[in-house]
């Protein structure tokens, strides 16, 4: 099974072979990027619109760079300034943009499910750049590529995902992807930040870092998503760091060659100690950012191929 989808809305519908195809394509782009040899004709003639209804630094920048590197015409909609502020609905905004005939629409939205809804209303390929607490597929793919490059494989690894799991779309997409690829997943969080129904995920659950990190190959830290919290989920940031923040003492329980990951943005001294984040022998955080561009190039390349194939079939010129 190869990746034939029209949209990239989540990890959930993907088959392991589709994930592997996306990662193999991204791996080739990662090498081309390092040598400054990205082919500028892959998305030439295509229009990519980035619609970010929520703040973003690395995701938006990397989608923009990915599109430009492959020759797309990229437009960033300033959603703060758009008609949404005048009361236009998400769907009306989408239909207006759709009428301008974009080919690729990259969307981030604070509501879970909003991007899926939008994808049903437009004729272009839609890429989910994060919807509420639901999914963030390109983040999970870039994490997977980073792990595969560091560990030489993406199966039978013991991977700890730690912190604010309840509010995290990164955790959800990663749990699905890493589970599909047959890894052992451990979730470590205070009970208040562990999602309900977590048992269905086929994961092991811990509320103690030292126990949960024992002999893992990968330690993935998550940001406290304060913007999605409506009450006191933690006693204080100081107390949280003490119990759940990754420092050298806690990391010592993982395998000696365990890698440390974080999707960013990082809160140093809250979920991770700054010296661990900057330790080039353990931290792959910068590599995650680099792989983000390659993964987004791969996703847009494969979606554009599928779109051209569909247009050829229906006799419409691509
Ligand atoms: C994440 C997100 O927005 O979901 N950031 C990202 O895309 N790199 C994680 C976060 O905000 O903590």
Automatic annotation (TrEMBL):
The keyword Transferase applies. L-aspartate binds at residues 86, 169, 223. It comes from Limimaricola variabilis. Heterododecamer (2C3:3R2) of six catalytic PyrB chains organized as two trimers (C3), and six regulatory PyrI chains organized as three dimers (R2). This is Aspartate carbamoyltransferase. Its EC number is 2.1.3.2. It comes from the Bacteria. GO terms for molecular function: aspartate carbamoyltransferase activity. It catalyses: carbamoyl phosphate + L-aspartate = N-carbamoyl-L-aspartate + phosphate + H(+). Residues 6-148 form the Aspartate/ornithine carbamoyltransferase carbamoyl-P binding domain. Reversibly catalyzes the transfer of the carbamoyl group from carbamoyl phosphate (CP) to the N(epsilon) atom of ornithine (ORN) to produce L-citrulline. Pathway: Pyrimidine metabolism; UMP biosynthesis via de novo pathway; (S)-dihydroorotate from bicarbonate: step 2/3. It is an enzyme of class 2 (transferase). Belongs to the aspartate/ornithine carbamoyltransferase superfamily. ATCase family. Keywords: Pyrimidine biosynthesis, Transferase. Carbamoyl phosphate binds at residues 58-59, 108, 136, 139, 264-265. InterPro entries: Asp/Orn_carbamoyltranf_P-bd, Asp/Orn_carbamoylTrfase, Asp/Orn_carbamoylTrfase_sf, Asp_carbamoyltransf, Asp_carbamoyltransf_Asp/Orn-bd. Residues 157-302 form the Aspartate/ornithine carbamoyltransferase Asp/Orn-binding domain.
